[in-house]
Amino acid sequence: MRNFSNYFVLVLIPLLLASPLAVASYKKHINKDKPCKRFVLYYHDKLFEGDDVGNATSAAVYNGTGLGNFKFGKMVVFDDPLTKDRSFVSPPVAKAQGFYFYDMKTTYNAWFAYTLIFNSTEYKGTLNIMGADMMDEPMRDLSVVGGTGDFFMSRGVVTFQTDVAEGIYYFRVKMDVKLYECY
Ligand SMILES: *[C@@H]1O[C@H](CO)[C@@H](O)[C@H](O)[C@H]1NC(C)=O
Ligand SMILES: *[C@@H]1O[C@H](CO)[C@@H](O)[C@H](O)[C@H]1NC(C)=O
Ligand SMILES: *[C@@H]1O[C@H](CO)[C@@H](O)[C@H](O)[C@H]1NC(C)=O
Fold first, then answer.
1. Domains in the chain, please, with CATH?
2. CA distance 128 to 76
3. Which residue, 16, 22, 33, 59, has most beta carbons within 10 Å?
4. What is the pLDDT of residue 28?
C-alpha cells in the first residue's frame, strides 16, 4: 500500500497535471466575436502619378517584372492617411506607413507590411500589421502582430474590404481592426 501511494505521488499526479485537460484549463479562451478593442478606419492609397506631389500618398518603387498579368513584383511604399469616414480629405486619425508588393502569378495578391501610427488625443502608439491581401476575396484577414504605446503588446486581426478602386491610381480599403489581446 505504501508503495502504491508513493507511485501515486511520484508518477500519477505529474501525469495528471500534464494531461491535455489540465493544460486546456490554463489556456486563455479567445472569442472571435468579442475583441477587447475594435475600430473601423478607411485607408486611402493615392499612388504618385508623377505630377501630383500634393495629393499622392504612395509611390511605386518598382513597376513590376512583366512576369504574368498581375503586376508580379510591383512594389509600393506608402505613407497613407486613415480616416473615420470615406473622405480622402477628412483629417486623418492615424497614418499607415509601410509597403506592399504583388506576389502572385495567377491573380492579384499583395503582401502588406506596415505600421499604423496614432498620434492623437484619442490614441498614441503603434500597431504593426502584416499579411496577404487576396484582392479577389470580399474580406481578407491580416495579422496584428504587435503594438506599442496605448496598444502595448496588442495582437489581433485586421479585416480588409475594398471600398472603392478607381483605376490604378486610387483605392480605398475599409479596415476593421479587432484586437484580442489588450493590456
Ligand atoms: C488634389 O486632389 C483634388 C481633388 O481631387 C484636386 O482638385 C487637386 O487639383 C489635386 N491637387 C494636386 C496637387 O494634384
Ligand atoms: C507601370 O506599368 C503600367 C502597366 O502595367 C503602366 O500603365 C504605367 O504607365 C507604368 N508606370 C510607370 C511609372 O512606368
Ligand atoms: C505627435 O503630435 C504632437 C502634437 O501635435 C507633435 O508635437 C509630435 O511631434 C507628434 N509626434 C509624431 C511622432 O508625429
1. 27-181 (2.40.480.10)
2. 17
3. 59
4. 74
The H-assigned helical ranges of the chain are 2-7, 13-18, 20-24
Does ligand 1 come within 6 angstroms of the Cβ of 54?
yes
pLDDT 10s digits, 90-123: 999 999 999 999 999 999 999 999 999 999 999 9
**CB 109 within 8 Å of CB 135:** yes
Amino acid at 119: N
Residue 81 in contact with residue 89, Cβ under 8 Å? Answer: no
Q: Give CA–CA dist 145/149, Å, rounded.
A: 14
* Ligand 2 in reach of 64 Cβ (< 6 A): yes
CA angle 131, 37, 77 (to 5 degrees): 30
- Segment 9-36, tens digit of pLDDT: 565 555 555 555 555 555 678 899 999 9
CA-only gyration radius of the chain, Å = 23
Please check the confidence at residue 68 and state whether its pLDDT lies above 70: yes
Is 55's C-beta closer than 6 angstroms to any atom of ligand 1? yes
